[in-house]
Design a protein that fits this description.
- The chain is an alpha+beta fold.
- The chain folds into 4 domains: 98 residues, no CATH class; 86 residues, no CATH class; 64 residues, no CATH class; 80 residues, no CATH class.
- It has 4 helices and 23 strands.
């Protein structure tokens, strides 16, 4: 059977009980004269010294409730009960509230928690259902436990700290979303919001920075000091490792930027080195001594070389002094290599300048051509002399 609290009856009962000095309980009876074996009761309870409360008891039936209505009439003396239900509390603990609920101030949302006096707080949107105003630089936090060692939840801060949203999971905050002209992701130990270190940022232009708060491109990866900044693949260097690719800087290579691969056997190779001093590039070597140093074979369809030495066409000029073959023979007998051509030891020690060596070989070929022309002229002259002798 459902009972509804009628304030008129309650008022009469209270007035009747008021004349008594030791009223321990006020019983509210039915207005229609129905079954009153289970009336609602109100009493003051003395729990302990200075710990008292006013208690309203309902039956434990799920359909029992305490309701507060608003009168629909205007003015005074309205005697008709209204159907405007504002508050509803059931015996099993459920509650209903028809308007806005404010804690700490006048609400402007369905649930509005206001910390102290809201100063400078922006007006809420008409569709806002839950608002928490942390005036004076406070926090708004949702936890699943009061225990600081096990809690998790959400933390919101105001603009004094950059408008953070922190996803918390004790003992450390796991993710922070900031608002310094973009979104920042911060990590760190402890519970202090200001003690976090920014690791990733997406700025207002859509640039992402890893290790930098000022990304200058769509993806900007920065690492101060030695070590890999970017690794692709499995960096396991053990026997079961796979080939990976990493890029970074190394102190033992004078701050070179390297592109490094790791073979499945675990051996590490510095395949591509860029020296920050002079921009020298090394492939297969960690110590490039030229703008491009390759320790290995270059496979190409064509190589074009801009010459820094003159093309030796001057050999064919009339005033060019061609060494005699006897002079060349004496030089070879003494030095074991052609004149002007570096020796084998020099080539092993200093390498070969491709453009210079090609022009030097061309010069020797042109000199050899002159020697052949000269020998042919001498041979033709001898043939003519022989023919004259044989004709006599």
């Amino acid at each position: 059977m459902k009972f509804v609290l009628i304030f008129a009856m309650a008022f009469v009962s209270v007035q009747a009980a008021h004349a008594q000095t030791n009223v321990t309980e006020i019983a509210f009876r039915n207005s229609d004269g129905g079954d009153d074996t289970d009336p609602y009761r109100m009493r003051k309870v003395n729990g302990s010294y200075n710990n008292n409360w006013l208690e309203l008891q309902l039956n434990d039936d799920s359909d029992e409730s305490f309701r507060i209505y608003g009168n629909s009439c205007v003015g005074f003396g309205c005697g008709t009960y209204s159907g405007n239900l504002y508050h509803y509390f059931t015996a099993n603990g459920n509650a209903f509230h028809s308007g806005n609920l404010g804690i700490g101030g006048n609400p402007s949302a369905r649930i509005h928690v206001i910390d102290a006096v809201p100063s400078g707080i922006q007006s809420l949107h008409a569709s806002t259902k839950l608002a928490i105003d942390a005036a004076g630089g406070g926090f708004s936090e949702f936890r699943n436990s009061m225990d600081n060692n096990t809690y998790s939840g959400l933390l919101f801060t105001d603009n004094n700290l950059g408008g953070y949203v922190a996803f918390r999971n004790a003992p450390d905050d796991k993710l922070h979303l900031g608002a310094y002209g973009g979104i920042s992701f911060e990590v760190g130990s402890g519970e202090s919001v200001g003690a976090k270190t920014e690791r990733v940022r997406i700025d207002a232009n859509g640039n992402m920075g890893i290790g930098t708060s000022s990304p200058s491109s769509r993806l900007n990866v920065y690492k101060q000091g030695a070590g890999s900044a970017v690794t692709i693949g499995n960096p396991d260097t053990g026997s079961g490792g796979y080939t990976s690719l990493s890029m970074g800087t190394s102190d033992d290579m004078n701050g070179y930027t390297y592109l490094n691969s790791i073979k499945a056997s675990g051996s590490s190779y510095a395949d591509f080195i860029i020296n920050k001093n002079g921009g020298k590039v090394g492939i297969g070597t960690s110590s490039p001594d030229q703008l491009l140093t390759v320790n290995g074979t270059i496979h190409s369809k064509e190589v074009k070389v801009d010459l820094a030495v003159p093309v030796p066409d001057y050999v064919f000029e009339k005033d060019y002094k061609l060494p005699s073959l006897e002079e060349v023979k004496n030089y070879i007998d003494q030095n074991k290599h052609l004149p002007e051509v570096p020796s084998a030891k020099e080539m092993e020690a200093n390498g070969v300048q491709l453009g210079e060596m090609n022009m030097l070989l061309l010069k020797k070929m042109e000199e050899m051509t002159l020697y052949m022309i000269e020998l042919k002229s001498e041979n033709d002259a001898l043939k003519q002399r022989i023919e004259k002798i044989e004709a006599r």
